[in-house]
Design a protein that fits this description.
Shape: elongated
Structural class: alpha/beta
Largest sheet: 7 strands, mixed
Number of helices: 12
CATH superfamily of the largest domain: HUPs
Helix content: 25-40%
Radius of gyration: 31 Å
Number of strands: 25
Distance between the termini: 33 Å
């Protein structure tokens, strides 16, 4: 696998400096998602940075599930996170859980209480916010801040024993009047520890202690955690570790036309706006996988945007360009007719069929050719015929000659209509001397059309996906509900489409470039009785 972010960046500069000064002699990172949702394109950046940094320095990167909020977590998310990371092309050294350290984290809380650096508080969550003050009003200390060590130890033990209700008491670190909560009561079953605990550490407390416990040297995280770093360092210092981890922040990935908020994504799933977390319009990793985005293209995208601390918004078109580049180089070609129009080649022998060889990928001649079959009746795109064409229209129209891809030159001689005036069939003649797509007399044609044989094609459903939102910042700060920015044309389902016969055995995830159409992959809902293809990306962007 190619190395991501192989060029120098400020994270590598910090690490190089530490190594040169003897601060560290080894490198260990971790990817620490909370198992309360599916990973999205923003997580892909963090995954690439965490794993590639460890790889660059010959270190190790663990997957650690920061499972400190069991009320919102599920094994479903744990399994999905593992699948997404492996699909993206990375392999962790170990799978770890913050919950595995709950005994250790609990002892750290006891240590803070004994040092007079933590206390049990009876204020409710609303009261805590009120006591912290505002921009115009000063805050004030909790009335329970000066409890004795003995009283705090007793109350914390009773909290742990289940004596109090959820929210009745918390354990807070004694730092300043904003004293952060580090433990709360939650009588809830945990997917890893069962019913052992009814008190759970807060993320900001468990996170640095878990890093330190497992020997992480660099805690790489996105920039919104920069304001948390003093607290991160305070916990590490107060507990005391011989090799404290160093937190380094990088700019998160912001990409236009997308929503990555777990709350908003869950809302769209629950309201049926999208077909689950892996809907191909979602920028979840499972959604992009289902749509046909290659993992290598996502890694290349992350590599191109680089690593910095500066806020920026990346154009979604860059991601699509990376996908196109990858699929153009790697996807086998095929012919698919999305809106079929029958063509009868009147001078072609009835009942005859012949094999036509077509390149699998013109950029990779070493892959060879595939066989399609030509017959008297074929199908072309309905848009490839006009009775009265405009100028510079080089497809089929009365009297015009075109090339059928890798087959023959054909000339339109007529058409048929139904009672409503709709064109139902074209009539053409072919030149037998032009087999393969070239004329021995050297004459040229301006149009080349894709086609499928009526005797060797497979009906299918094709889903034309586009961006889910039509506003660059769908969840903007202008007071507009993000759902008002949904793109009404984000999905068009076409039935009655036809693909060449060789695709009848295509499997879920197989990708193709459909000539003149775009890149497509087989959807997970596809069956032996009905093929279903998703459009991954068009050949060219239609967005400006």
């Amino acid at each position: 696998m190619e190395e991501v972010n192989s060029n120098s960046n400020f994270i590598y500069d910090f690490i190089d400096e530490d190594l040169a000064n003897g601060v560290n002699t080894r490198i260990q990172t971790r990817f620490p998602p909370e198992p309360n949702g599916y990973l999205h394109i923003g997580h892909a950046k963090a995954i690439c940075i965490d794993f590639s940094t460890a790889e660059k320095y010959g270190g190790e990167c663990n997957l650690r599930l920061d499972d400190t909020n069991p009320s919102k977590e599920d094994v479903e998310y744990v399994d999905a996170i593992k699948e997404d990371i492996e699909w993206l092309g990375y392999k962790w050294n170990k799978v770890l859980y913050a919950s595995s350290y709950f005994d250790f984290i609990y002892e750290c809380a006891i240590k803070l209480i004994k040092k007079g650096k933590a206390y049990v508080c009876d204020l409710s969550a609303d009261e805590i916010r009120e006591y912290r003050g505002t921009l115009t009003e000063p805050g004030k200390n909790s009335p329970y801040r000066d409890r004795s060590v003995e009283e705090n130890l007793d109350l914390f033990a009773r909290m742990t024993a289940g004596e109090f209700a959820d929210g009745e008491r918390t354990l807070r670190a004694k730092i300043d009047m904003r004293d952060p909560v580090i433990y709360r009561i939650a009588h809830v079953h945990h997917h890893q520890t069962g019913d052992k605990w009814c008190v759970y550490p807060m993320y900001d407390f468990a996170h640095p202690l878990s890093d330190a416990k497992e020997g992480v040297t660099y805690s790489l995280c996105s920039l919104e955690f920069e304001n948390h770093r003093p607290l991160y360092d305070w916990f590490i210092k107060e507990i005391g570790f011989e090799e404290p981890p160093r937190q380094i922040e990088f700019a998160r990935l912001n990409i236009n036309y997308c929503v990555t908020s777990k709350r908003k994504c869950l809302e769209m799933v629950k309201k049926g706006i999208v077909d689950g977390w892996d809907d191909p319009r979602m920028v979840t990793l499972c959604g992009m996988r289902r749509r046909g985005y290659p993992a290598a293209a996502i890694r290349e995208f992350i590599n191109r945007i680089g690593v910095s601390k500066a806020y920026s918004v990346v154009d979604y078109g860059l991601l699509e360009a990376c996908v196109r580049d990858n699929l153009n180089a790697n996807a086998p070609r095929a012919m698919a007719v999305l809106r079929p129009l029958k063509v009868i080649i009147d001078n072609y022998p009835e009942g005859q069929s012949e094999a036509i060889e077509v390149e699998i990928n013109p950029d990779k001649p070493e892959l060879g050719t595939r066989t399609v079959h030509f017959s008297r009746e074929i199908y072309v795109e309905r848009d490839d015929f006009m009775v009265e064409p405009p100028k510079k229209y080089f497809r089929l129209f009365p009297g015009n000659e075109v090339r059928l891809k890798s087959a023959y030159f054909v000339t339109c001689t007529g058409w048929e209509k139904d009672d409503k005036g709709n064109i139902t069939c074209l009539h053409c003649t072919y030149d037998p001397a032009t087999k393969g797509g070239d004329a021995p007399d050297g004459r040229k044609v301006r149009g080349t059309l894709h086609w499928v044989s009526a005797s060797d094609c497979v009906p299918c459903e094709i889903r034309l996906y586009d961006r889910l939102f039509n506003a660059e910042n769908p969840a903007g700060d202008d007071g507009v509900d993000y759902l008002e920015n949904l793109n009404p044309n984000s999905l068009e389902i076409l039935n009655g489409c036809l693909v060449e016969g060789g695709l009848k055995d295509a499997k879920c995830g197989d990708t193709f470039q459909f000539m003149r159409q775009g890149y497509f992959c087989v959807d997970k809902t596809s069956t032996d009785e009905k093929l279903v293809f998703n459009r991954t990306v068009a050949l060219n962007s239609s967005w400006k």
